[in-house]
């Protein structure tokens, strides 16, 4: 790791958390980036001497508006949060808050998840790149989330839908009063579209 700017403490922390998993970095962004973002925010919540520019105690507007932003059209193919540049930041933040919800209920959630991930990956090497396997790890370490089974709970977090249908979609970023219009192809690539007024 090369640290070019020591003033960017949140970035340093975030990348160190990725590096912590070493060869077991998950290939599904909604899990890898989401859990890393959740852990990053938690580190800054604990280390009060450091300022986290957007994330202290989940103070970012996306966190506050999570329930309104948790809509079907936010789903992204194979967990690729970067498939649409206009929604990348939003998906990134939503991913962090999804897993922070589990941390709020169980401070050991990420520790337990990592332990189980490592155990499973030794036996089944493709575990970090398989959505079904990763969901299984979550269910194993946390049976319930927000009062329902973890399986049902994950189904309700629309960003975790890794197989959304192709087509034209509209998504309302209500925290920014913005409406996104995009096309998703059969491979899951998304292309922002221009609005046409008649």
Structure description:
- By secondary structure, the protein is mainly alpha-helical.
- It has one domain (9-192).
- The chain has eight helices and five strands; from the N terminus they run αααααααββαβββ.
- A three-stranded antiparallel beta sheet has the order 3-4-5, with helices on one face. The protein has a two-stranded antiparallel ribbon with strand order 1-2.
Summarize the structure.
The protein is mainly α. The chain has 8 helices and 5 strands, in the order H-H-H-H-H-H-H-E-E-H-E-E-E.
For the structure shown, list the relevant keywords.
198 residues, mainly alpha, three-stranded antiparallel beta sheet, two-stranded antiparallel ribbon, 8 helices, 46% helix, 11% strand
User: How far apart lie the N and C ends?
Assistant: 52 Å
Largest sheet: 3 strands, antiparallel
Q: How many E strands?
A: 5
The tally of helices reads 8
Order of secondary-structure elements: HHHHHHHEEHEEE
**Sheet with the most strands: spatial strand order:** 3-4-5
Determine Rg (CA atoms, Å): 17 Å
Q: Indicate the mean pLDDT.
A: 91
